[in-house]
Every structure is written in C-alpha cells, then in structure tokens.
C-alpha cells in the first residue's frame, strides 16, 4: 500500500490515504512515531503495528464513550466509528469487544425501544424503526412479542387522552384526532373502529 496523501483533518489529527483512498486518522506525534510520509510504502508489518498499538485501542475507547452517552445498535455504532475514519479492522475489533462486555446488545436495545415506544406508537411503526436501525428481523419479532398492549388498546388510550368528552368530538375534531392517530402509524380501519367503539362506550349519539 502506498501513502498517497496525508492531510490535515480535525482536532490536530491527520487523514492518511492509501492508494488514493482515505483510510485512517493519526495524530502528528504518531505520524512521526511510525515514520509515515507521502509517497512511502506502508508494508503489512507496519500496518499491523499501527492497528494493534493505536487504532484498535482508540476505536475501543471511542466505542465505550459512545455507548456511555446512549444505547446504540451495532449498525449505529459502526456508522459512528466510520465517521471517525476508523478502518474496518479496528471497527470489527471494537464491536466484538463491546459485545463480549455486554455493552453492545441489539436484543436489549430492541426490547427497551419497543417497550418505551409502545406507549405512543403503533407496532408497525416500531417494527419499521427498529429494522431501519439495523436490528435483525428475528430480534425485532421477539421484541414485539414482549409488548403486551395491542394497537387497539393503545388507540383507545390515545383517544381518551385527547378527548375526555364525546360531545366535543364533532366532525372537525374527529378529523383532527384521526390525523393524529394516523401520524402514530395506525391504520385508518383500526382508527375508525376504535373511535366508533369509544363513542358507543361513552354514550355518544
């Protein structure tokens, strides 16, 4: 591999490109330590030293910092580390270390997320959000099974929260309520059914 560029990056760091591809970041003192200069060849032995002595350790430290701030999925963590220009080898090592220490756990993340969001969002929306966060579909399915409330139960809770007196639910108010519930990811058929049942249960004419 040829070091084709060493460019100022940010916070005193330098971005090193190998074979014209931005590859990793080091501090100026580390550039001197490893004797890296544009046009030089980076052989396998030196690259392994840089990985083991510096980049993997730094990636692990960064991972702990990121997970301490908030729980993340593996996909989210990998994306954050890529933004920091850590090479794949360092990212893989950091992710595996986090898993072994149980700092990174997609099953736990999915269960907590589903539980918290089930109070205000439909099951369909929660499932889509978890999948978009990179959670395996089977893990998502398992997490959704843990949610006790059905969509019907949640719709009724939200209707009651928004409207305490059925007599106030005239046509404009009902349309507004429907838009609110649609925004939570519920189907129109479920919304109409639950509003109708709620009216009957509360003596609306």
List the helices and strands and how they pair.
Layout: E1 3-8, E2 13-18, E3 21-27, H1 28-34, H2 44-69, H3 74-83, H4 88-100, H5 106-117, H6 123-132, H7 137-145, H8 151-162, H9 171-183, H10 188-201
Antiparallel strand pairs: 1-2, 2-3
How is the largest sheet built, in terms of strand order? Answer: 1-2-3
Q: Characterize the largest beta sheet: strand count, sense, and whether it forms a barrel.
A: 3 strands, antiparallel
Mean pLDDT: 90
Low-confidence blocks of residues: none
Structural class: mainly alpha
What is the count of helical runs?
Answer: 10
The share of residues in helices is 55-70%
The rounded Rg comes to 26 Å
Q: Distance between the terminal alpha carbons, to the nearest Å?
A: 78 Å
Assembly state of the chains shown: single chain
User: Tell me, what's the shape?
Assistant: elongated
Count of distinct strands:
3
- Beta-strand share of residues: 5-15%
Description:
- This protein is mostly helical and 205 residues long.
- It folds into four domains: 1-42, no CATH class; 60-103; 106-145; 151-201, no CATH class.
- The chain contains ten helices and three strands; from the N terminus they run E-E-E-H-H-H-H-H-H-H-H-H-H.
- It has a three-stranded antiparallel sheet.
- Helix 3 (74-83) packs antiparallel against helix 4 (88-100), helix 5 (106-117) runs antiparallel to helix 6 and helix 6 (123-132) runs antiparallel to helix 7 (137-145).
- The longest helix has 26 residues, at 44-69.
- The model has no long low-confidence stretch (mean pLDDT 90).
């Amino acid at each position: 591999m040829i070091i084709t560029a060493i460019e100022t990056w940010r916070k005193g760091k330098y971005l090193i490109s190998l074979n014209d591809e931005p590859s990793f970041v080091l501090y100026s003192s580390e550039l001197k330590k490893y004797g890296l200069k544009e046009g030089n060849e980076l052989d396998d032995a030196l690259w392994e030293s840089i990985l083991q002595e510096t980049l993997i350790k730094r990636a692990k430290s960064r991972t702990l910092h990121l997970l301490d701030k908030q729980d993340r999925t593996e996909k989210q963590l990998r994306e954050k580390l890529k933004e920091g220009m850590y090479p794949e080898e360092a990212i893989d090592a950091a992710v595996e270390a986090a898993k072994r220490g149980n700092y990174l756990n997609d099953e736990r993340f999915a269960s907590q997320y589903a539980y918290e969001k089930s109070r205000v969002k439909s099951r369909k929306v929660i499932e889509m959000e978890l999948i978009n966060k990179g959670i395996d579909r089977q893990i998502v399915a398992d997490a959704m099974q843990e949610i006790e409330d059905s969509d019907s139960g949640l719709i009724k809770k939200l209707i009651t929260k928004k409207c305490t007196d059925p007599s106030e639910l005239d046509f404009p108010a009902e349309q507004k309520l429907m838009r609110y519930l649609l925004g939570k990811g519920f189907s129109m058929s479920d919304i109409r059914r639950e509003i109708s049942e709620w009216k009957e249960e509360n003596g609306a004419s």
